[in-house]
Amino acid sequence: MNAVQPNIVVILADDIGYGDFGCCNPSSRIPTPATDSLARKGVVFTDAHSSSSVCTPSRYGLLTGRYCWRTPLKRSVLFSYEPPLIEAHRPTIASILRGAGYRTACIGKWHLGLGYRSLEGRPVDFSRPLPWGDAERSLEESIDFTAPIAGGPLSLGFDSFFGTSGCSTCQPPYGFIDGDRFVTPPSTYVGNFPYTGRPGMTAPGWDHAQADPAFARRAVDSILAQKTSPRPFFLYLAASAAHEPCVEQVVPRFARGKSAAGPRGDLVWLFDWMVGQVVDALARIDRLNSTAIFVTSDNGALPGDRVITPSGGEEYRTYGHASCGSWRGYKSHIWEGGHREPLIACWPSQIEPGTSCSALVGLNDLPATLAAIAGAPLPDGSAEDSRSFLPHLLGLTPPNPIRDSLIHHSATGVFSIRRGEWKLIHETLGSGGWPPPAGGAPSPGSPGQLYNLAQDPAEQENLYPREKGIVGELTELLLRQRESTT
To answer: Are 181 and 320 in the same domain?
Structure first.
């Protein structure tokens, strides 16, 4: 491996599934030329997974290398004004790389909690148990949006931050944060947003459709600013696309109609456009060949555009597009569609072009992997659930599997564990998520599901009643790992 530290860029989509990019699904109805080009120049991982099938816990795992279910957040996500989920003392990718000499920038959706202040005389109980659920108007109107915000990216190893508190187009407060303050403080409570968008405090002039273009512009500016810097840089760009609401109003005008998969498909195209903007900026400062780029998503996709039918019901319009490919399930589910992610890595001169890798990896493996790329030691007690897959990037065959097993987690707190070809879903026969077929929390002592993914990748034949030995082994392994600190 080249001894010179490469620049590192991680571009994270929101709710993009294994079937959205052309490099993973030749039948995709969405053009994704920038991502597909990176795949041709690098490697596509075919067995990569987020540590959760929903946003907040997946992002916690990606940045810390630690499963989120080890924190107080045991299910669901953060919503709006919860305190920081990443502990102040915990090392992150950013703090590890900054310690190795990198400039570090976070741009886009944060969704890991922030330290808000309440207005004088309007106390807020920020210590109540997680998750809080949708914010009440009275709570929102008690927040001091002019005050500095604590516990965010600047406290966790990033030199700069420009982004939004939570889901940029779906969760209040709606407004851009630069560093530790709102650029324009939210000052108006808006109660009428597109379907699936939540009402809430909004900055004057806020436009959902301009969130990702603003993130892209800041990312390009951040890269161009490194032209004369001798230091390597790390950019974490977390897009809003293709999160709900998936309606034309949320799609920038230049992205409308770019896919054959409706507004959600156009948002996937928009994310790919963002990838292209980053690649072009790297080329402009002659850093493309010295940069390791990773493109992935925080969890699986929804089936399509979620809309209200004329009769008042709810449906997903798919336009014949398979957002999660041939995998069963969708975002929030414990089945593969909920957490099997596209993961593309491009690192010229280090990764062999046009390759694929079938090794089992998790996005929580990024901290250990990026630290290894940078030649940075992991601090003691950090990234407990992270394993470096650098050998796989370099096309090497390690003597032993880098990862023997991987734990998955659903929106309702359902656990599953993967080892080799076997996948055990613990204590439920359901999906563990909300898109049809909806499924609830695990039921202690109830039967579960067991699938041989080599023979049954679509998870259709539940072998739980027949393979008692495998069930026992995987159950013991899951419980042992859940009870351990590593």
So the answer is: yes
